Amino acid sequence: MIPTLPFEQMLRQLQAGVATLEGPDLRYSFVNDQMRELVGEAKPGQRVADQPGQLPSSLLEVLPRIYAAGEQYTVKACACGPQHCYDLSVQPYHDEHGAMAGLLLLAVDVSEQEAARQRAHELALTTRRLDARLRVLTETAPLVTFTTDAQGKVTYVSPQWYRFTGQPPTADLTAIWPLLVHPDDRLRVLYEAEAARRVGAGWNFEYRLRRYDGAYRWMLSRALPEMHPPDAPVFWHGALTEVHQERELSEARRRGEAELRFLADSIPELVWTASAEGLVDYYNQYTLEYTGLTKEELGPTGWVGLLQTEEQAAAARRWVQSVASGTEFEGEYRMRRHDGVYRWHTIRARQLSDGSGPRWFGTCSDVEEQYRLRQVLQTQYDELSRAHHNLDTFVYAASHDLRQPTNNLRGLFEELRRSATFADPEQALMLQMVDAALTQLDDTLIDLATTVRTQRQQQEPVEVLDMALVLEEILLGLRPEIMQRGARIEVLVGDAPGLRYSRANLRSVVHNLVSNALKFSHPVRPPHIVLRSYHTPDDQPVLEVQDNGLGMHIDNPAHPVFQLFARQHTHVDGTGVGLYLVQRIVSSQGGHVTVTSTLGEGTAFRVYWTVPAA
User: Fold this and answer.
1) 6 DSSP 8-state letter
2) What SS3 state is found at 118?
3) Helix, strand, coil shares of the chain as percentages rounded to 5?
4) Is 364 helix (H, G, I), strand (E, B) or coil?
């Protein structure tokens, strides 16, 4: 027989806090150990108001009313102190006569349960916020999101689906979506989706889907299963992304590459491409035919291995330098043909950088015939240069040697004119004509020697010249002619005071232009010559020589005023060599001369210098 425990002992063993409050003053009469955690060291006979412990003040206020009313009162998850929560129950109890004796206070610690409930509540709020955020993201992104179950039933689709397909929201998604897939893609799509669901895997494939306007657009479908191991997946979540433009661009690029390869294979030229590191990854068909090797035999450095052995190292170094710096590669090398014959080739390569990264495109052009022709032309040029030099030497020597007989003739003629007489009435005219012929012959020989000497002076060193000083020296040498004709000379070089040129060439040009201006001055007015230097807007130095002389008749800019022995005013002594020398000197240095003139008013020559490189 189980012994009966005293009532007070039973209350002490309870897992809940128990306290009895006696009388209207609500004094402690019993407090078990669990209750002391709440009310502290309460002693029997002590009022609860004096020793409330962690009992909430709101409970202390209603305890007297509960005693007076004699009714039960319960409160759930009441905060008692900063860290604990209790379920509190207050029940009145009576004595053996049925009179109100006091209150029974029960307290059950539910702190852990309340904390768990609070965490669950917060987690639920967070889940709802994340769910709302995810829904906003999926329904505003430019793609269609969907969810299907293991049987292929569509359980969710975002609003973008209805906007893209034009289907009503009431449509049966599971039944309608396969009908919107292009007939050529339908079976493949259904099979791949079913196979992925059967093995519990995701899928990634493209197909054409009919849009609201009836046009089929390429879509990329991706989906992954929702995994909860060890259970098999039940749902697949995915997205549809339109890739129509990318698909068309890819197709166009593929067609373009095929066409370019066809074009490259049709060109009778060695064409190749290389990676950013300089390794060749493509040879056209003509390269294989020309070399007699396969792509594997040529390898990533094939064209270097086809060169002459003594040229390979230098070519490889230049190629490595071009690849490292990105600069264009170009050079002439002898390359072996399929029959073992080495022929000269011009090898060029340029780098192209685009979105896919840098690549090299190169060609090897057979220039064997051009190389041999260039050698022949060089040989002929050397022969012509020697012949030209010999001719200049001959002209210079001839003009120099012929001047002595001319001088002898002039001396004999002077002696004849002094010692002999003629009965001819036109004696004076005949003597004048012979004297003029001898003078012209002597001037022509001098001009021929000057032409050859000027050609040799074109190789003289270049220096920075003071234009004012050089022009002053030239005018000083022409001072007798200037004074004889009463000429007025103006020198305006402030806009371009310096010129980097050959001193001898500059003196020859200016001397000829100024002497011509004096020689062809107008008979009724004194010569007025202006020498002015300046720069064009392109910073090219110019020398202008303007006079008020007889002028020239120029039909067009191509009039042969600069041709050798060309003359317009035959009544003035001259040989027609001066302007030819000017044009020859200036053009040989890369410059040019222009002339504007009006008969009876004057002429202006403009010399556009080309300054030699430093």
Assistant:
1) P
2) helix
3) 45, 25, 30
4) strand
Tokens 């020198």 belong to residue: 491
pLDDT, mean over the chain: 81
Measure the CA–CA gap between 85 and 83, rounded to whole angstroms.
7
How many CB atoms within 10 Å of residue 539? 8
- The pair of three-digit structure tokens given for residue 93, joined into one six-digit string: 């109890």
Amino acid letter at 463? E
Beta pairing class for 216-225 and 329-336:
unpaired
pLDDT tens per residue, range 329-369: 998 899 898 898 899 988 899 988 776 678 888 888 888 88
Q: Would you say the C-alpha torsion 387, 388, 389, 393 has a positive or negative sign?
A: positive
Whether residue 57 contacts residue 64, with contact meaning beta carbons closer than 8 Å, is answered with no
Question: Shortest CA distance to 511 belongs to which of 409, 592, 581?
Answer: 581
The secondary structure of residue 47, as a DSSP letter, is B
What are the structural domains, with CATH classification, of the chain?
A: 7-109 (3.30.450.20), 141-242 (3.30.450.20), 250-366 (3.30.450.20), 372-442 (no CATH), 460-608 (3.30.565.10)
Measure the CA–CA gap between 583 and 339, rounded to whole angstroms: 54
Concatenating the DSSP letter of every residue in 200-254 gives: T--EEEEEEEE-TTS-EEEEEEEEEE--BTTBPP-EEEEEEEE-HHHHHHHHHHH
